[in-house]
Design goal:
Keywords: Amino-acid biosynthesis, Histidine biosynthesis, Metal-binding, NAD, Oxidoreductase, Zinc. It catalyses: L-histidinol + 2 NAD(+) + H2O = L-histidine + 2 NADH + 3 H(+). Belongs to the histidinol dehydrogenase family. The chain is an alpha/beta fold and about 425 residues long. The protein folds into three domains: about 5-20 and about 235-365, Rossmann fold, CATH 3.40.50.1980; about 25-230, Nitrogenase molybdenum iron protein domain (Rossmann fold, 3-Layer(aba) Sandwich); about 395-429, no CATH class. The chain is built from 18 helices and 14 strands. Helix 5 packs parallel to helix 7, helix 10 (about 250-260) crosses helix 11 (about 275-290) and helix 17 (about 405-415) packs antiparallel against helix 18 (about 420-425). The longest helix is centred in the N-terminal third of the chain and has 19 residues, at about 80-100. It is globular. About 45% of the residues are buried.
């Protein structure tokens, strides 16, 4: 991996380079995505069937687009019992963590007859996108569905592209059943997002769409925002390790590569105060690449978006980490909890040398669907909050309103909204 001195120039170049990976930088795809969205909106199911055959080479129709109970039963027969046990253990951790995020309605009443409050209501129907085809991500199925389930969403509609045989991967199906999906449909890509956003004869319109996907899925979610809500627009995966001379270089290298293997656009960055650690980590990554099955992808990822930055002080290193606002941030320093208190921007923070990133991907419980491309500065991980909406509650008695009605009338008149003022005034004529 390339080793560079951390200064304002290298930080600026790095940030500019990382932003090239953002879905917002792929405008050339937008016309194609919009055409798919418009066609599905107009032709509905017919368009879904055509696009699925064109892109996924699978023949889907009204009779087989929805996964049946028989198919789910077959899927269970194909999944190893040990893997099923692990899925259930992970699901329990994910449910337990997200249950603590749950918010409830509240009301505050006063003796004068004033009642103010907030009514918390789960969304009625949400759509969950899960990548498919060659990729198999049962962990993403759990992470998308469980917070919706905890929130109390009535209908959880999952879409995922089928294989050429017209079937969904068994592990994906089992994960969906275990997590509590209401229905699973065999459709992917921008056409699946269109179906969820507008509705077709087979797939009902949803209130919100969540889940990561490729560039077509990301741009489709961006385009339908407003017709429905979305969680965020996910970019390529990324990790930043913040380390000092106490870090184990082999652990650091292994963790960097855990994200670099996702795809050639993935970003793996080490920011350290130790030149010696930087050299050792670079050497360890070279060794690992020779051993790992996705070595070619890892190498291209590191060549394009892999960096080792050597900072003069830990304060400089922390400032850089906050500027980059990485999806995953690992802290391997002598006092990691102290460093953690100074981190403002990160999707998920992993503290200490035994808290490697895959722990969060699969098992610990916090959600692994995280803000990318610097959006951790203003976005949060997927959570129960994403599946709840809030309504304000206001109730005043005549006595309570009489104390303040003149103030409200004057405020409205100051804005020249006389009908507003009159709405209050008529109650005291």
């Amino acid at each position: 991996m390339r080793i560079e001195k951390l200064d304002e120039n290298t930080k600026k170049n790095l940030l500019e380079n990382l932003l090239k990976r953002s879905p917002n930088s792929y405008g050339s795809y937008e016309a194609s995505v919009q055409e798919i969205l418009d066609t599905v909106k107009e032709k509905r199911d017919a368009a879904l069937f055509e696009y699925t055959e064109k892109f996924d080479k699978a023949v889907i129709n009204a009779q087989n687009i929805q996964v049946t109970e028989e198919e789910i039963k077959e899927a269970y027969e194909c999944v190893d019992e040990e893997l099923l046990r692990i899925i259930r253990r992970a699901l329990k951790n994910i449910e337990s963590y997200h249950a603590k995020q749950m918010q409830y309605s509240w009301f505050d009443s006063k003796p004068d007859g004033t009642i103010l409050g907030q009514k918390v209501t789960a969304l009625q129907r949400v759509g969950v996108y899960v990548p498919g085809g060659k990729a198999v991500y049962p962990s993403s199925v759990l992470m998308n569905i469980m917070p919706a389930k905890v929130a109390g969403v009535e209908e959880i509609i999952m879409v995922t592209p089928p294989g050429k045989d017209g079937k969904v991967n068994p592990t994906t199906l089992v994960a969906a059943k275990e997590a509590g999906a209401t229905a699973v449909y065999k459709v992917g890509g921008a056409q699946a997002i269109a179906a969820l956003a507008y509705g077709t004869e087979s797939i009902p319109k949803v209130d919100k769409i969540v889940g990561p996907g490729n560039i077509y899925v990301a741009l489709a979610k961006k385009a339908v925002y407003g017709h429905v809500s979305i969680d965020s627009i996910a970019g390529p995966s990324e990790i930043l390790v913040l380390a000092d001379e106490t870090a184990n270089p082999r652990y650091v290298a292994a963790d960097l590569l855990s994200q670099a293997e996702h795809d050639e656009l993935a970003s793996a960055i080490l920011v350290t105060t130790s030149s010696e650690l930087a050299e050792k980590v670079s050497a360890e990554t070279d060794k690992f690449i020779q051993e790992l099955s996705r070595g070619e992808i890892i190498q291209k990822s590191l060549d394009n978006y892999g960096h080792i930055l050597v900072a003069d002080t830990m304060e400089d290193a922390i400032d850089a980490a906050n500027e980059i606002a990485s999806e995953h941030l690992e802290i391997m320093t002598a006092n990691p909890f102290d460093v953690m208190t100074k981190i403002r921007n990160a999707g998920a923070i992993f503290i200490g040398e035994y808290s490697s990133e895959p722990l969060g991907d699969y098992f610990a419980g916090p959600n692994h669907i995280l803000p990318t491309n610097g959006t951790a500065k203003f976005f949060s991980p997927l959570s129960v909050d994403d599946f709840l909406k809030k309504s304000s509650i206001i109730s005043y008695s005549r006595n309570a309103l009489s104390e303040i009605h003149e103030d409200i009338e004057k405020f409205a008149e100051a804005e020249q909204l006389t009908a507003h003022a009159n709405s209050i005034k008529v109650r005291f004529e």
